[in-house]
Write a sequence for this structure.
């Protein structure tokens, strides 16, 4: 996988800007606020389907403009492809694949695959479950396009159930119907996440062990409200029982309290919860291992390399971890942002803005 070029128009702080990339290391260099992270955000739109900063589409449109566009030209599996996203204020974004409009995200997610690493990813260990779920979902959507459709159907139903619970007199029968569907879809989501996390855990703990020269162990465990139930049927049954037991509380509190939207995973270092007991350095190594494992898994699943977008890692990580990454990713294309030229990293230097 190789990004050839990206063109942005009225995207964030950019008017019209186009840049081409080398196949190895690319360094986006420039002072604070020049637009380095913005450019990575634009590229990642095509891998994750949305901003990795959690921004809404309209927030990425240049102040004072009505629409924006980002176009990505890249090579994969021996062919060159072009993806384009057009963002509008007050209207859904339009997506184009090689000049033709596509209506569903699932039709183009997975074509371009990238792993992004930003200082915000420390949330993977330190933050709320939402960050870890977002990480899983983005990683899985790139490798399994079916998962995109599953997730979007589940979220739509969850939204409808929430609206029903918020209404003045929630209809108990309607809630039962939603619960039945949410149990089946939720079971498929939880089953996929559980098997993905098992593979991720294996890879990440091997990487963590390498990074710490075998001195420390890291363990990742999947957490779900559906318990240890086996297979889709078992999980669906378990969700249904849970929904029934929480139905009255959900009606009283006017919100959804349980389901696959609560899945999570925990990180333990030397058998202790990393969120509570690990040092900053250990937490950084754990996050880095998870991100490198994400890329390695995607490469295993698809048989092609990913593009690595590394935002500010030079200021965030100490030298030995920086070198670990650079060595580990040898042979891949990566795009790194930094404020000063770093001869040590080498590669093509690009100055946006
Ligand atoms: N929708 C928008 N329209 C115009 N400008 C925007 C928009 N959103 C953000 N910006 C501007 O983009 C700039 C930030 O860009 P970005 O985060 O890419 O900087 P950076 O080069 O990564 O900086 P740093 O080195 O501090 O990380 C800010 O000046 C901000 O005001
Ligand atoms: Mg930045």
């Amino acid at each position: 996988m190789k990004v050839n070029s990206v063109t942005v128009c009225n995207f964030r702080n950019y008017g019209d800007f186009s840049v081409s990339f080398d196949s190895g290391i690319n360094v986006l260099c420039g002072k604070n606020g020049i637009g380095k992270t913005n450019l990575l955000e634009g590229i990642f739109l095509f891998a994750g389907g949305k901003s990795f900063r959690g921004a809404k589409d309209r927030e990425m449109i240049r102040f004072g403009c009505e629409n924006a566009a980002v176009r990505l030209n890249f090579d994969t599996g021996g062919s060159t492809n072009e993806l384009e996203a057009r963002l509008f204020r007050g209207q859904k974004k339009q997506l184009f694949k090689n000049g033709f409009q596509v209506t569903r995200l699932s039709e183009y997610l997975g074509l371009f695959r990238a792993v992004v690493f930003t200082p915000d990813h420390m949330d993977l260990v330190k933050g709320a479950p939402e960050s870890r779920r977002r990480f899983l979902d983005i990683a899985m959507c790139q490798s399994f396009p079916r998962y995109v459709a599953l997730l979007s159907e589940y979220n739509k139903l969850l939204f409808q159930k929430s609206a029903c619970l918020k209404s003045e007199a929630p209809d108990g029968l309607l809630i039962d119907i939603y619960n039945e569907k949410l149990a089946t879809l939720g079971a498929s989501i939880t089953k996929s996440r559980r098997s993905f996390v098992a593979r991720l855990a294996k890879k990440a703990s091997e990487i963590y062990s390498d990074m710490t020269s075998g001195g420390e162990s890291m363990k990742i465990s999947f957490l779900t409200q559906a318990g240890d139930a086996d297979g889709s049927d078992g999980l669906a049954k378990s969700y249904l029982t849970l929904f029934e037991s929480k139905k009255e509380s959900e009606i009283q509190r006017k919100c959804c309290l349980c389901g696959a939207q609560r899945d999570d995973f925990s990180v333990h270092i030397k058998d202790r919860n990393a969120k509570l007991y690990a040092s900053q350095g250990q937490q950084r190594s754990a996050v880095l291992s998870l991100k490198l494992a994400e890329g390695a898994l995607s490469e295993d699943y698809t048989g092609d390399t990913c593009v690595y977008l590394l935002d500010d890692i030079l200021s965030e990580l100490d030298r030995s971890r920086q070198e670990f990454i650079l060595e580990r990713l040898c042979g891949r294309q990566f795009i790194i942002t930094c404020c000063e030229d770093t001869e040590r990293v080498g590669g093509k230097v690009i100055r946006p803005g």
Summary: Residues 1-113+309-353 form a domain with the Rossmann fold fold (CATH 3.40.50.300). The first strand starts at residue 2 and ends at 9.
